[in-house]
Amino acid sequence: MRSVCFTLAAFIAVATASVLPKRDLATVYSKCTVKDTVAITFDDGMFIYEEELLPLLANYSAKATFFLNGNNYACIYDDKSVQSVRNLLDSGHEIGAHTWSHAHMAQLSWDKLHHEMFLIEDALVKVAGVMPALMRPPYGEYNDRALAAIKARNQSAIIWDFDSQDSIGATVAKSKSLYDEAAAKRPDSILTLNHSVLKNTVREVLPHALEVLSKAGYKFVTVSECLGGLQPYQFVQYRGMKDDTWKC
Questions:
Q1: Per the residue annotation, which of 93, 195, 208, 243 is the catalytic one?
Q2: What are the structural domains of the chain?
Q3: What is the model's pTM?
């Protein structure tokens, strides 16, 4: 009897799987497509160092992309964070989503995936007036369920092909050497991973990276630009006015 029940259950599972439509998966980009470009990207903000990047990036006519959390190192609804996000956009930089709490997306249920993504999207619409079309899975981790959720929210997943290793404890010297090696190899393009919440990255590594990559002849562009004009936002609207919903 147990054997019959098991066989019937297995049959039902297979039959159901064959009937249910397969979810579409988001496109994953890990490399720029426009030659001679570098996309400098930063994860995990907002925090206290992003404002320091603005004059540095301006010195190299560089536009960067910031993948933001809602409640990680700081709350995105804090007055300072709100102003910093707006300053990034007003300076010509790009912002994308990075989940609300820097969650491991491959470990989340379908409902929790959407909750994590909704919260940061809602915040970016309120604070910045933009609905992101680009998102970066924290830790670079994703599975088919995560990609299906990203696709369902009309977004693309952005990974990287160069890691400064700042988030895994690389010394300043090590991160600088990785940028030196990349500049020496001179690939057609580079899509970088850095973290704006780390003081040494902002104050020591990035000045060096911009200098060596500039000398190598690269143009510093946003992720959407380095991907040939991919749309960074689903829509743009007026920025919100702070109210009781602006809280972490």
A1: 195
A2: 26-236 (3.20.20.370)
A3: 0.91
